[in-house]
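Journal club prep — side note

Before the paper discussion, L.F. wants everyone to see what a predicted structure for a comparable chain looks like in token form. Sequence:
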Amino acid sequence: MSDFMQAGQITEAKQALDALRANMRVTIRGKDDVIEQVLVCLVAGGHLLIEDLPGVGKTTLAYSLARSMDCAFSRIQFTSDLLPSDVTGVAIYDDTVKEFIFKKGPVFANVVLADEINRATPKTQSALLEVMDRARVTVDGEAHAVGTPFMVFATQNPVDYEGTFPLPESQMDRFLMRLQMGYPRAADELEILRTQRGGYDAIALNPVVTRGDVLKLQALAHQVFVEESVLEFVLKIVAATRIESEFRAGASVRGGLALRTAAQARALVYGRDFVLPEDVTELVAPILSHRLALARQTSDALEERRAVGAALRRIVAALPIPA
């Protein structure tokens, strides 16, 4: 047990995370690996980008997470005519009190689903930059905290690019992880056909953790011990992306920090107060792939994703695993 941990904290954390996992499995069938990665992202205090085809359960996943945590959930449908104030809110003059009153936008929630984020203009996309980084919104020079925990859960379609505005690298870098859900297995899809009724808002889930519990989990993750050799392993992976000929540019310092933080969160999800090398290797693709671009030009997003993933696997395979 780490000197930073108190007796029982790891056990309580594991119980809370197992309860979250079990609750989400009620509505998200056959995707235990995806649920695990969502929990890692949550515990790490990061934001999540799910890049997949429509209708595979992305919205249901976000809603199930929010309901399982007794947290406020908000969905923003990103379109080309959406304005930044439609996301953050706006100051309106109130004649009764003779002053401007700030009316909060939908970003003021604990879990914010930014649906089809790449269909909004770059100006509207940039409205999320500050709040994703600082958990606050600045309007007319006044800062407004959105509260904690705070998680942006964005989606985009990797195939249909008509009428879209690709996210700039600076915004992609704000997402801790990028995941794909994929289609369910035949048996799980058959069960979905048997049981699921209505849309995501018809889902009835009882919360199994409080907001305070989530904040404790996030604080505890930062205390998970990372041995020096594992830190050096993280650095070697990040440094290797910077000399990989497949990539236009390597991962940033923020990418390395994200990999370390996510590894700490994964250790906690598995009930450990220390990071193993496998915590790092299992997270290399979801943490780094969206931060990297191919040196060669390609218009096929799926092909680029596969090529980046293959290059990352080569990098990890070529490095010695810490003992």
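L.F.'s comment for the group: Residues 31-209 form a domain with the Rossmann fold fold (CATH 3.40.50.300). Keep this in mind when we get to the figures.
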